[in-house]
Amino acid sequence: MSRRNKRVSTPWFSYLVVALGGVAMALPFFDMVSSSFKGSGEYGILPYHFLPQEFTWSNYSAAFTELQLGKLFLTSVIVTVSVTASVLITSAMAGYALAKLRFRGRDVIFRFILATMMLPPFLLLIPDFLIMLNWPLVGGNNILGQGGDGGMTTNIVSLMLPFLVSGFGIFLMRQFMVGVPNEMLEAARIDGAGEWRLFWSVVLPQAKPVAITLGLITFVGQWNEYIWTSLMASTNPDLMTLPVGIQLLQSFIDPNRTMPIVMAGIVISTLPVLILFLFLQKYYVRGVVLSGMK
Fold it and tell me: Which of the ends of the chain has fewer CB neighbours closer than 10 A, N or C?
């Protein structure tokens, strides 16, 4: 009887732990949304109030005017969508080649890709910046990358180039495509299908959950990218995206009303990621399981 009671009570304890963890993680988000509706000078006063005492929508209009949210939002969309599309295309094609094509040096190339995942991103900041600074025939540089005024660092393309190919994305797609039966591909080859047809019509449709998972991970990571963008924005303020712009431009707003406006800007910047995840979460879970990442 005691064992039976233990089996019955254990799931409820697990549910309680998960519920408490969910509340702990949702509380900062709730405070952010609530603070975006607070009036001037109301944020941070003691005793602290989670709910606004003076409910106002003006912080959202101020976020677009004083934080230049529209311009920052457009830049973030251009950069994030471009990087996500590039990562999906390159990862799918490279993953298929490493999983299903036989050629000399395939395993060496795959190990090299895995090795790139071991490098901390911060290690590449200075080399990447110097490459952008000395990019040939851009920003006034000559063919040797000298004599210019910032090179590629003043161009929006500089926000995308270091992220257009993902070692993790190639690894994720390759891990799934290895599990696609070779007999299916051989049957398609007998029917006259070429490698491109095999990739596009046979393998890629089966990789849809994994591709959506990779796209979601890439989109969220690039949308919230801060370090590299802030470095590029130091040479050209027009390159600021939402995370960098909200952080930098808040210093030019009246301190007594800064935080509610900043919170409103953060809420707006969070909405695309939140909506995207809510619509694609079933593919995300399925993609993680199918790729073996569990």
Answer: N
